[in-house]
């Protein structure tokens, strides 16, 4: 049996170094002791941390149409209506797809989970993985397991729950008749071994920004890594500047060609923007051209936000496609709503989060 540290539900109200915990010996014997003493027992060994179900919520997506593993942001948006909090306040961990092509997700408060990991680090605990007790039950059959004075429901059920004895009595009439029941009062050690053998597929909460990091490099290795990072940053900046300059030249050539096709009488181009503006002012308000629609978008929608424009491309039949970088998904959603309020048919796609920034494609559809 690998090393387990169980943070019991008794300490959820006041997380601290005295949190009541349980560790198991290699022979499977329980030892109940406060967190700071458990850290001494573990003595720096990597450990799998087990959380009570009361700290998390378990959800499942609808059947996913694609065989490819979706991004975490896509699954988060798919279950957004089932959540009572803003996505940015939550930490969502994803499990393997089941037979119905659904993805299980474990949801917990981001700030609370971050504080928990900080508490473990302060005690010198090397956290190898983080699971939830009700999620340990193998998913081949529906089970109800009494463990540490509570009833855990899971396995083949479409839920993961922790209930008191009274709560189970209320819910039991609605449970399947083929439920299997196990009680720690009859075989505590056997149930411990069965749960901690991880015969199922429990979700590891150390995902995304909380993913387990590798051991820090020695001093010299750190210096080399820092130098390498600086060189990569410089090279990236140079490449980006070169790319932006080439894109600027390409867009100017395209704009000039488009201008000549619209105004063949303008044989000489000195200042493209000024000449175009002068022609527009002479003609007065005209049809809503693609360039005019892009101008409205940049002035009324993008200009009113803090997003950064990386690239603008026009495709016949699809409209303008603008690659953006924003601070959050919420800022992108506000951008989309502002576009609709201004009568511009905009949509967002290909949203992805990199470090602390969010990238997406804003499309202004053709009319």
From TrEMBL:
GO cellular component: Gram-negative-bacterium-type cell wall; plasma membrane; type II protein secretion system complex
Domain (GspL periplasmic): residue spans on this chain: 213-366
Main location group: membrane
Location(s) in or outside the cell: Cell inner membrane
Domain of life, per lineage: Bacteria
Transmembrane regions: none
A biological process from GO: protein secretion by the type II secretion system
NAD keyword on record: no
Keyword Repeat on entry: no
Membrane-topology annotation of the record: Single-pass membrane protein
GspL cytoplasmic actin-ATPase-like domain location: 22-170
Keyword field: Cell inner membrane, Cell membrane, Membrane, Protein transport, Transmembrane, Transmembrane helix, Transport
InterPro entries per record: ATPase_NBD, GspL_cyto_dom, GspL_pp_dom, T2SS_protein-GspL
Similarity comment: family membership: Belongs to the GSP L family.
NCBIfam families in the cross-refs: typeII_sec_gspL (TIGR01709)
Summary of the function given for this chain in its UniProt record: Inner membrane component of the type II secretion system required for the energy-dependent secretion of extracellular factors such as proteases and toxins from the periplasm.
Protein name, per record: Type II secretion system protein L
Organism name: Pseudomonas zanjanensis
Source lineage: Bacteria, Pseudomonadati, Pseudomonadota, Gammaproteobacteria, Pseudomonadales
């Amino acid at each position: 049996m690998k090393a387990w540290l169980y943070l019991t539900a008794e300490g959820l109200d006041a997380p601290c170094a005295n949190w009541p915990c349980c560790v198991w010996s290699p022979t499977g014997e329980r030892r109940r002791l406060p967190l700071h003493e458990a850290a001494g027992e573990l003595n720096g060994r990597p450990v799998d941390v087990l959380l009570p179900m009361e700290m998390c919520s378990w959800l499942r997506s609808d059947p996913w149409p694609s065989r490819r593993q979706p991004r975490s942001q896509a699954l988060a948006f798919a279950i957004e209506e089932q959540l009572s909090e803003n996505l940015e306040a939550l930490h969502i961990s994803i499990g393997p797809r089941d037979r119905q092509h659904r993805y299980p997700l474990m949801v917990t408060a981001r700030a609370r989970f971050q504080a928990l990991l900080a508490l473990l680090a302060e005690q010198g605990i090397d956290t190898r993985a983080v699971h939830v007790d009700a999620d340990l039950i193998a998913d081949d059959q529906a089970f109800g397991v009494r463990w540490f004075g509570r009833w855990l429901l899971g396995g083949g059920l479409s839920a993961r729950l922790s209930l008191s004895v009274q709560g189970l009595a209320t819910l039991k009439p609605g449970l399947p008749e083929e439920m299997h029941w196990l009680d720690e009062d009859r075989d505590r050690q056997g149930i411990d071994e069965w749960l901690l053998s991880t015969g199922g597929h429990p979700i590891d909460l150390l995902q995304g920004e909380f993913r387990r990091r590798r051991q820090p490099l020695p001093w010299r290795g750190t210096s080399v890594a820092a130098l390498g990072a600086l060189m990569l940053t410089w090279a990236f900046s140079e490449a980006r500047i070169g790319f932006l300059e080439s894109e600027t030249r390409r867009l100017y050539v395209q704009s000039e060609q488009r201008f000549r096709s619209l105004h063949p009488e303008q044989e000489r181009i000195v200042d493209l923007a000024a000449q175009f503006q002068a022609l527009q002012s002479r003609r007065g308000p005209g049809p809503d051209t693609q360039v005019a629609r892009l101008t409205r978008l940049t002035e009324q929608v993008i200009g009113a936000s803090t997003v950064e424009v990386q690239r603008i491309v026009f495709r016949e039949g699809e409209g303008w496609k603008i690659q953006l970088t924003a601070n959050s998904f919420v800022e992108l959603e506000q951008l989309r709503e502002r576009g609709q309020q201004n009568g511009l048919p905009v949509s967002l796609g290909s949203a992805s989060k990199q470090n602390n920034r969010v990238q997406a494609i804003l499309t202004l559809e053709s009319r």
